[in-house]
Specification:
Elements lengths: L11 H20 L3 H5 L4 H13 L3 H26 L7 H32 L4 H14 L1 H11 L3 H32 L5 H11 L3 H9 L3 H16 L1 H15 L10 H14 L5 H24 L3 H7 L2 H27 L2
């Protein structure tokens, strides 16, 4: 099956659903520019999903018959295209900017957080595999975008994706306010702690890109720059993560049906490599990033449209508890890993 299968027949069948998802995404893009929401770190993707959930639990029931095909296309095919274009935000030169310490910190935190999510989710909290994996991916890599990218690999149900997104958004938003407070306390206790080191800690442990920007900016420009570069490296690790996860799913689901190979993850790497060559003018790259924001927002709005409150309620408190435990690990374990690597490489 083709990874990006654009509709070629009966295009009107997709028009209503695509139009609805695009309308919600456009509203989210405008709302995301409001200062109060920017300060809170609520990015366009989160807002698009929230708007989709509101519409999905009010008016969408009467529109589902007409809009279902287009909404499904948006949350499947447009999502894959959006993840591929996400590579235009990254260059491999960013690896050199943060050095070996940033690479090792991100790698250790990604691996430990995801494995901890698997163990706590399945063995301790007795969650289903997909919910544990989705929350683990969102906590360890890049929030909602990682969850959305993981969904087609493991073929998770929409309500599980929505629960995972809500979980990482909740604790990531809490981090926006907590991290600057921690900086002021720890800077007094640890005089050798620099704004750049705190930025690496912020970028390697906080969930969403928008949350990292907000938390870093609240400390200093130096912290913000280090945090964003470190976070972008975590985002870059999304593609190899998906490839490894796909192979594991194949082994775990032996005889359980076809498992999608994430070709879009290879596309993501290819786009990042191409972007590293700086062949396109900055204005064009900026335009592609704006298009990508819109495509991902459309996919998130479509996900929200197919998410029912009754299904979220049915998930219970255990997913939130998993998100809380991972948040605590990222703060404490992430701090220990950052200090250890900085000490070893000093």
């Amino acid at each position: 099956m083709a990874e990006l299968a654009f509709p070629s027949s009966r295009p009107l069948r997709y028009g209503a659903g695509l139009g609805l998802a695009m309308l919600l995404a456009a509203v989210a893009l405008q709302a995301g520019n409001l200062p109060v929401l920017k300060t809170a770190g609520l990015g366009t993707l989160t807002l698009a999903m929230l708007l989709g959930i509101v519409a999905g639990n009010t008016v969408y029931g009467r529109l589902a018959a007409r809009c279902g095909a287009g909404v499904h296309f948006a949350k499947q095919q447009l999502l894959r295209l959006g993840i591929m274009l996400y590579g235009f935000r990254l260059t491999f030169q960013q690896l050199a900017d943060i050095g070996l310490s940033g690479v090792l910190t991100d790698l250790l935190l990604l691996t430990s957080t995801f494995l901890l999510a698997c163990w706590l989710g399945r063995r301790v909290l007795h969650l289903d595999r997909d919910t544990a994996w989705l929350i683990g991916a969102g906590s360890s890599i890049c929030g909602a975008a990682a969850i959305m990218a993981t969904e087609p690999v493991i073929k998770a149900e929409p309500q599980k994706v929505a629960v995972a997104v809500a979980t990482v958004v909740l604790f990531g938003t809490l981090g926006i306010f907590l991290y600057p407070l921690l900086w002021h306390e720890l800077a007094a206790l640890l005089p050798g702690l620099t704004p750049t080191q705190w930025g690496i800690f912020t970028g390697s442990t906080l969930h969403e890109v928008a949350q990292v920007v907000a938390a870093g900016h609240a400390v200093s420009a130096e912290t913000e720059n280090a945090a964003v570069i470190t976070k972008m490296l975590r985002v870059m690790m999304l593609a190899p993560f998906l490839l490894l996860l796909s192979r594991f799913v194949r082994a775990d689901d032996s005889g359980g049906g076809e498992v999608s190979f994430p070709w879009f993850a290879l596309g993501f790497i290819g786009v990042a490599l191409f972007n590293s060559l700086h062949l396109l003018p900055p204005s064009l790259v900026s335009g592609l990033n704006e298009l990508d924001n819109f495509l991902l927002a459309v996919a998130m709005a479509a996900l929200g449209l197919t998410t029912q409150f009754s299904l979220l309620k049915k998930a219970g408190l255990r997913p939130l508890l998993l998100g809380l435990l991972l948040f605590v690990w990222l703060l404490l374990g992430g701090g220990a890993i950052n200090l250890a690597i900085q000490h070893l490489l000093a």
